[in-house]
Amino acid sequence: MPQVPLAGYLALASALFVIGAVGFLIRRNPLTMLMSIELMWNAGNLAFAAFARSFGDMSGQIFVFIVITVAAAEAAVALAIVVMVFRHRADVDVDEISVMRG
Amino acid sequence: MIVLFWLCAFVLLLSGLVVIASRQPVHSVVALIVNFSGLAVLFLTLSAEFLAMMQIIIYAGAILVLFLFVIALLTVGNQPVESGRGRLAFQALPAVVAGAGALAILWYGVRVAWSAGARRLPPDFGSVSVFGNELLTTHVFAFEVTAFVLLVAIVGVVMMAARKEVRF
Amino acid sequence: MDHHIAPPIPFILFFPLIGAVTIALLGPYADRRASGFVGTAAVFMSFVVTVWLAIVVWHLPIDQQATFTHSRFLGYWVDLPPYLVISFRMLVDPLSIVWMLIITGVGFLIHLYSVGYMAPDKNYRTFFAYMNLFVVAMLLVVMADNFLWLLVGWAGVGLASYLLIGFYYDRRSAVLAARKALIMNVIGDVGIMIAIFLMYAHFGSVAYQDVFSSLSRASVSSLNWIGVFLLVGAVAKSAQLPLQTWLPDAMEGPTPVSALIHAATMVTAGVYLVARAHPIYDHAPIAAGITAAIGGLTALFAATIGTVQYDIKRVLAYSTMSQIGYMMLAVGIGAYAAGAFHFVTHAFFKALLFMAAGIVIHNLSGEQDIRKMGGLAKRMPFAYWTFLAGTLAIAGIFPFAGFFSKDAVLDQALKLHHPWLQAAGTIAAFLTAFYMFRLLLLTFFTGAYRGAREPHHESPWTMTWPVAILAVLSLIGGWLVLPGHDLISGALAASFVDTRFGQFLGEFNWPLSIGTLVIAIAGITLAFALYELKSGAREWLRLRLAPVRALLMNAYYFDDVYHYALEMPSYALAGFFARYFERQAIGAIPRALAGLASFFAGISVGWETGYLRRYGLSIVVGVALLLAFYFFLTSAALGGR
To answer: How sure is the predictor about A42, in pLDDT bands with cuts at 50, 70 and 90?
Structure first.
């Protein structure tokens, strides 16, 4: 079967990444923002795996594994923070949390 | 293979847009699950079987469920979560413009790699045994450090959960 | 030099130096009397070594005495051949030994006196540290072998003088006096510096040896300029016209300070300088002439002012000014031995007078106004007799010391054909006898002590013994020069072999001496007539000569002239700078910088909105820009695609 060239995967990964980035910037719900970040990570994972296949080096896949692990840890911590901050607020809006102004 | 690729690409992009665009967070989560599944299929096309499984089990299976729980905790009722334009002016347009600009540059750069072909891969490339071998010999240090990172995250979350109320 | 045990010359400097440092560092932790003991002992040990040195040097043949110089080499201070090489050598020729003997000897006696005199003061320890510092600096002046070290010591004694005049720092008058002294001294320092520059320019070195041996390289006018600038320094330090106004005010310092610094030693540094630089002055007739003229003029000037002062110490200050005028006169006309002789005797009787006056002041709990004193001869016999000895010496009465030394100066003036100077000196001698006896009579005889303060305890032995010793020296000190027999010029011969004028002082000019003695006795008689016999002469004179009296009491208005001509413009200028220039012109620079920093900070603060999404936006925009940068860079490197 003809292989999909590396560039295709990379183009897809960059598109996903930009979608995630824009999503992070235009949404105000912290959870949606976190999900956008997950999108960005996965875009990166895709790129790594594509490179691994392209160069025949397993290190790319190993790195994807590590990214998944760290992402899991980060998601846990970030969600814990979100819960703490927004537990007693009526509005779940990131723009309301601007204490570190100036 | 190419057809599969284009199909998956379409699914990924569409679900990605739904993730960032839907008003309800639960919808976003569902779209994200679809996204991850598509990604797993793509991993399979890249001879990364172990990764595909990991993606489904850990990412879709654990992390997104965690998201669902938090959404349940935070969002009471069915009211729309974001109302109004928000406090920041000049956020949406510059964001989209910057994103589009970055995408253009990245695609331009990717064109360079068009002609890079794939090598002949060994038949068990990406299999569990090869993956495990690599992980625990060549990259054992990263493996150990990852374990440490997880430990730090656990401790952090437990400490935060055990804290007294913090009002913002 | 070989068969004598060489004395440790550097120790002469080290003893008081270590003394000062020890007192400064350890003094506060020890009993206060320890500081006095350490200070006095240090100077005493220096004196012992100096005496030893003197004996060794004066046993050498004359030509070796002159080359005993440059004996101790302790390394280089400035080592830049061929531009400038200055070493830590010390000079111990007879001229410097004479000064060293007085500095350490009379200095020791004054330190001993201070142990008793300064006892009630709370800054007792500091006093001795400062005094030792002064001794070090003064010794440095006379032991230097080049003009640069001389300048270091010069500035050092200026500093010590400032510290000691302003010792009673909670008295505003004392602080102002110290400041005035320092400013005038610094003017002198600048003069010497310019002279050093000129010397370096003409001779390429500032060491005595080099300068004096290559005088022919410079023209007479250059030598005159060098002499004049050195004279500026000498005039400032020795309180001669026109830089004399600081000396009377310097009496704000404690009495031992007045005795040591402003009578016996520091103020004679100018005389030493001219004597040391005599090769220059021998070949610079204009500078030497100016020196002698200033000396003679000051001698007369100060003597006139002394006749109307009523503070004991001020009278003595003006008399010091006058006597140093004699010394400057002597060295100006080339009679260096006579000048040195007068320096020695003056040190004896002036220190004596100050210390005896100190005993009086001490007993009267600080009273210094002689109009309020009187009848003290019975109450304080010791002070009276010693003061009398000093007064007789300074008035030039045979057989006291002043008779011989003053006559030596006046005699040399005549011999070297300066009749005007001799006349000025004689008039000054008359006035000196007059006002010193006026002082004696007003203090110890006329009237009765009307002060509210009761005279109290007896003076301790530490105060009486030095005074007694100096009283004896004031009597016999002059006997170094007797008819046909001159110890002074014999002692100093080695230092002055190259001068034009013979220095022998043993040929007495009997008519001159008798004449001067008669004039002095006339002055004393006048003093008796005006102050002891109760005629109305004083009031009559006061009325008739009121403007003259005003002139004298205001010291010829020098202070006022300086105040209006120099001080007020300086204050105005300083005020202008402080108020306007500093604040607006120079202050504007930091203000502008602060404004700039604020401006940029204001812009940057705009970034810190606290909004998470904003930060994200800036990150994404930054990433996009970076990507663009790198991609176009690499595509340019790859030749574009």
So the answer is: very high
Angstrom distance (rounded) from CA C547 to CA C543: 9
| Burial class (CB within 10 angstroms; exposed 0-12, middle 13-18, buried 19+) of C234 | buried
Task: Show residues of chain C in contact with B112, CB under 8 Å.
Answer: 641
Q: What is the pTM of this model?
A: 0.68
CB contacts of B105 in chain C (<8 Å) are: 624, 627-628, 631
- The neighbour count for residue C389, using CB atoms within 10 Å, is 25
* C331-360 pLDDT per residue, tens: 998 888 888 889 999 999 999 999 999 888
Characterise C535 by phi-psi region: left (phi > 0), alpha (psi -120 to 50), beta (else): beta
Contacts of C281 (CB under 8 A, 6+ apart): C227, C274, C287, C288, C291, C331, C332, C334
C247-305 tens-digit pLDDT: 999 998 899 999 988 777 888 899 999 999 988 888 888 999 999 999 999 999 999 99
With CA atoms as reference, the chain A residue closest to B116 would be: A6
Find the helix packing angle between C401-415 and C381-395, rounded to 10°.
Answer: 10
Minimal Cα–Cα distance from A60 to chain B, Å?
Answer: 10
The owner of tokens 């952090």 is B156
Residue A85 sits at the vertex; the CA angle it makes with A81 and A90, to the nearest 5 degrees, is 140
Instruction: Supply the pLDDT for residue C1.
Output: 42
More confident residue, C640 or C229: C229
Angle, vertex CA C352, rays to CA C265 and CA C39, nearest 5:
60
pLDDT category at C374 given cuts 50, 70, 90 is confident
Residues 6+ apart with CB under 8 A from B76: none
Q: Tens digits of per-residue pLDDT, B128-147? A: 888 998 889 989 999 999 99
Q: What is the C-alpha separation between C597 and C180, in angstroms, rounded?
A: 44
Residue C73, SS3 per DSSP: coil
Assembly ipTM: 0.87
- In 3D space, the residue among C109, C75, C107 whose CA is nearest the CA of residue C89 turns out to be C75
Query: What type of residue sits at position C468?
Result: A
Q: Determine the residue type at C301.
A: F
Tokens of C14: 């080290």
Q: Does the pLDDT of residue C491 top 90, yes or no?
A: no
Instruction: Report residue A1's pLDDT band, with 50, 70 and 90 as the boundaries.
Output: very low
Cβ pair A30, A96 in contact under 8 A: no
Write out the DSSP string of C100-128. Answer: HHHHHHHHHHHHHHHHHHTTT-TTHHHHH
How many residues does this entry show for chain A? 102
Torsion of CA C20, C23, C26, C27, to 10 degrees: -160
Cβ contact (<8 Å) for C608 and A97? no
Calpha distance C163→C292 (Å, rounded):
31
DSSP state for residue C308 in the 8-state scheme: T
Look at the block and give the residue holding tokens 């003695």: C517
Q: Which of C613, C621, C624 sits opposite B105 (nearest CB)?
A: C624
Kindly give the pairing relationship between strand C84-87 and strand C76-80.
antiparallel
* d(CA A54, nearest CA chain B) in Å: 5
Residue B60 CA to residue C302 CA, distance in Å, equals 110
Of the pLDDT bands very low, low, confident and very high (cuts 50, 70, 90), residue B7 is very high
For residues B50 and B89, the answer to whether their CB atoms sit within 8 Å is: no
**Closest alpha carbon to C434 in C505, C546, C527, C313:** C527
Sheet strands (E) in C454-499: 481-482, 485-486
CB-closest option in C613, C617, C624 to B101? C624
